[in-house]
Amino acid sequence: METSGKGASYTSITKENVNNNYHYDNDYGNSLWAGSEGKSSSPSGLRSFKEDHLYPGPYESEDFLDEGYDSSEDPSYTLQRVMPPEVNLRNVLTGIFAILTGRNKASGISGIQQSNVSFLGSGKNGDSFLHSSVYIPSAPPLLEPSGVDYSAYKDVLEADPPEWLPDSSTSVCMQCTAPFTALTRGRHHCRFCGGIFCRACTKGRCLLPIKFRERNPQRVCDTCYDRLDPLQGILINSLSNAVQVAKHDVIDWTCTRGWLNLPVGLSMEDEIYKASISLRSYCQAARLNPERSIPFAVMKGARGLAILTVAKAGALVSYKLGTGLVIARRSDGSWSAPSALLSVGLGWGAQIGGELMDFIIVLHDSRAVKTFCSRMHFSLGAGCSAAAGPIGRVLEADLRAGDKGSGMCYTYSCSKGAFVGVSLEGNIVATRMDTNLRFYGDPYLTTVDILLGTVDRPKAAEPLYAALEDLYIKLRS
Asked: Region Disordered: start and end of each range (predicted)?
């Protein structure tokens, strides 16, 4: 075979020529071919090829196979093939003996080159720790200038409210093109883009940017939901009702809300205000007549509290309706975020009259707390009540059961009105998911997350926590 002007071609190099004229430089970690006198005598193409291909070795020509070249002499072949051991009685007994004596723990796997890449490091005292590279984020933060879609997110966050299209502008849904009907497929405007869509195409609820001046999640179309959903964490922590300062925090005689609790609250802010008034009234009862207040031992061991305002009226058969909230005590002694409740019930017995009751239901164990984590649970109990004017007392013990569990609870209340009787009570207590959604702004948040999870205490509920602290101080003294 013909040779080039500068040296032999790659395919014409024999094993003898390689041994005489070339050697592999092991002082450097790359592939360098040098002549016997320190000058390179190989073609430039050979060096570039070797630098680009570390495995397999440089002897890849068919001529080396024809010459009977032994690849074990190539220094680039550093990995040896590990053959499985022969299975016989001697090897089996040797392995069992090594396991019993613990010798197999010290011996490594021979013949295999282990990787020098590790996420664990070893300290001077022998403790292991994660390598610093593990803490390096694999993607930039959401709203950093280095983010991939920063401009798109910025456009969404700084969007202006649109001008809604008139209902007469289209007779079909702008997404699925289905015709609108009066009963089965009505018109709905997307609050973000202003388009007209049917109910099936506007199932999502999202918080909108600050220029929309809306703190409750609004109905949006599916396309806008996909754009707004990645930003909900930012909007929840900055615009939701839960992170706002409480507005209704005056409960003295100068405020009409402080005179009488209404049985139904329209928002979580109303429920927080009602619960604060109920706790303040118990503070007054504890100061005037400590014997008729809630025992401090019961409140100290409470794992949670449900505070409701319920209206009750009837003769022989009584009807009850009211709303409230529930909070749980966490492992560190602090109180959880509140969850809204709705209570509907019936009573049967020797009773007559009407009254307005402020209930405090003491959840004395974790099973009772899990019962209130259910979307709906039932309670059955017996109690006696008497009310004359603004002063009244009700004491009940009931058993509650739901899909999350069951438990016993004790109920204390201050009542107002004209009512007397002894009755058997049955109630249905449900979680107001829509109220929680409007307050927290997160459609994926469940009651378990609120009471037993890591949801931060909302700033809007500070009057409730202040009233709880005052009640514990009064009961302790």
From this structure: 1-21, 33-52
Tokens encoding 357? 């009751």
For 69, other C-beta atoms within 10 Å of its C-beta total 16
Round to whole Å and give the CA distance between 53 and 287. 87
How many whole angstroms separate alpha carbon 430 and alpha carbon 441? 19
Cα 110 to the center of its chain, rounded Å: 46
Radius of gyration of the chain (CA): 38
Report the C-alpha gap between 126 and 407 in whole angstroms: 49
pLDDT digits (tens, 9 = 90+) for 14-27: 444 444 444 434 44
Instruction: Indicate the pairing of strand 33-35 with strand 120-122.
Output: unpaired
User: What are the domain boundaries of the chain?
Assistant: 10-73, 150-239, 256-476
Token code pair at residue 324: 């409230």
| DSSP assignment of 87-99 | --HHHHHHHHHHH
- DSSP letter at 179 equals B
First CA to last CA distance, the chain: 108
pLDDT band at 431 (very low <50, low <70, confident <90, very high): very high
* CATH number at 150-239: 3.30.40.10
* CA separation, residue 297 to residues 104, 135, 365, 452, 470 (Å): 59, 47, 14, 23, 16
How many angstroms separate the CA atoms of 13 and 62, rounded?
11
What are the tens digits of pLDDT across the range 378-400? 888 766 666 654 555 555 666 77
Which tokens in the block code for residue 299?
Answer: 């409140």
The amino acid present at 39, given as its one-letter code, is K
3-state helix, strand, coil split of the chain in percent (to 5) is 35, 25, 40
- Among residues 426, 319, 410, which one has the least CA distance to residue 359? 410
Alpha-carbon span 209 to 437, nearest angstrom: 17
| CA–CA separation, 137 and 383 (whole Å) | 59
Look at residue 396 in the predicted model and tell me its pLDDT: 64
Asked if residue 443 lies in contact with residue 364, where contact means CB atoms within 8 angstroms, the answer is no
Helix or strand run (H / E) with residue 33: strand 33-35
Residues with Cβ within 8 Å of residue 454, at least 6 apart in sequence: none
Cα separation, 227 vs 217, whole angstroms? 15
> How far apart, in Å, are the Cα atoms of 226 and each of 158, 215, 220, 230?
17, 19, 10, 8
Does 463 sit behind a cis peptide bond, omega within 30 degrees of 0 on the bond before it? no
Tokens of 392: 């009244």
For residues 437-461, give the mean pLDDT. Answer: 92
SS3 146: coil
